[in-house]
Amino acid sequence: MKAFPLFVELDGQAVLLVGGGEAAVSKARLLISAGARITVVARELADDFYAWAHEGLVRIQRRDVQELDIELSRLVVSAVEDEGTNRWISAAAKRLKVPVNVVDKPALSTFSVPAILQRGPITVGISSGGSAPMLAQQLRAELEALLPHSLAELSQLTERYQAEARLAFPDIRARRAFWDDVLGGPIADAVKAGDFAQAERLIATRLAEPTPVAQQGQVALVGAGPGDPGLLTLKALQLLQRANVIVHDKLVTDEVLDLARREARRIYVGKAPGKPSKTQDEINALLVELAQQGERVVRLKGGDPFIFGRGGEELEALRQAGIPVEIVPGITAAAACAASAGFPLTHRGLASSVTFVSGQVAESGKLPDLDWARLATGDHTVAVYMGVASAESIAARLIEEGRAADTPVRVIENGTRPDERVVASNLGNLAGAVKAARIRPPALIVIGEVAALAQTKEAPDVAHPLAVAAE
Hints:
By secondary structure, the protein is α/β, with parallel strands linked by helices. It has four domains: 14-113, Rossmann fold; 151-214; 217-328, 3-Layer(aba) Sandwich (Cobalt-precorrin-4 Transmethylase, domain 1), CATH 3.40.1010.10; 340-470, Methyltransferase, Cobalt-precorrin-4 Transmethylase, Domain 2, CATH 3.30.950.10. Helices cover 37% and strands 18% of the residues. It is built from 19 helices and 17 strands. It has a five-stranded parallel beta sheet, with helices on both faces. It has a five-stranded parallel beta sheet with strand order 10-9-11-8-12, with helices on both faces. The chain has a five-stranded mixed beta sheet with strand order 13-14-17-15-16, sandwiched between helices. β1 (14-18), α1 and β2 form a beta-alpha-beta unit. α8 runs parallel beside α9, α13 crosses α14 (311-320) and α17 (391-400) packs antiparallel against α18. It is globular, with a radius of gyration of 30 Å.
């Protein structure tokens, strides 16, 4: 960390602002909002400064800056274009041990002014140390969209009830669960809706009848999407940041897990062929046990929990145990990977329907019992999950049912991730293409005319016996 972040109390403090142009106006607005006692020194000033001076918000000195101005200030901001003046101000401030910021000149500054986002008493500052101010502003804009304006009212509500919460919940774990309810449950929803009376009633009820921690456990079945953290839903992000425990699969990327609250315990329950792993019944029992212990659990699954994710089995087990369950869908691999590769799953004149199928074979080695004749129709897109190992059998079965061997196919490995690969083939060449490209899970196979619209990377040209037999 190059610079240590601080928040400085400036209310009533003397601040020197040198410069009268656009950059100085921008800094003045921030300093005024902080309650600083501002002296502006410049020979020419924007009209804003005269208006602020009339309101008593700034004091204007139309002259050159002097060393005494710096010496009498709590801190100094230089917003002038002249390099020599900036260097003189920086040197004088450093000599007098007065914090100085020279706009867009981090080498001359002893502190930087972050991009600021404010919601009532909640202030978020984002700094690049002066090296990338536009990036800091972009991040602020993204946070603006994420943080609701009701944060101001919510922070005021929490401030009012701090003392009562300590008395009602002397145990810190119980108190944390209470505040999680306030900040992310029905109470927060009431504040967001502008129903402050309802929020007050709900918080008063919770304080009057504190619920034991063991009865407050709950589980959220959350789709993590295909891997790109930018495709995580806003609801999923909010739950990740409130969870005490994250139970996650192999397909959930580190980038997604890094969005969870730091204090959350992470439990890995991923399955891999030929390696020891928890059974589904054991995972179900773990979720129930954690919730009964009063934990806020996020069961995080790659893609969508209800599309080949066995989320339905977990939902059933939790409901039978009387555990509150929230379901948050995720972007499933077929939709995300096709979009990332630049092609649709349905398209007028090419495909009027799409089917998601599992290519995972049974222990006997047999393919799933599917309507292969329907899947073989020409105007139909087939998205195959977990089909790398069974690619040859799938291709053979579809060709046997009448699907043309030259039907376009795209195999998308690590879809939406930085190491994504899109391999082009056709149905007859599919198994050879998978082998030649050394495709490894997670990978999605998309079969159909729409696949020809995809962008490709590292697409091998591999002959395969099925293609020859079909010609």
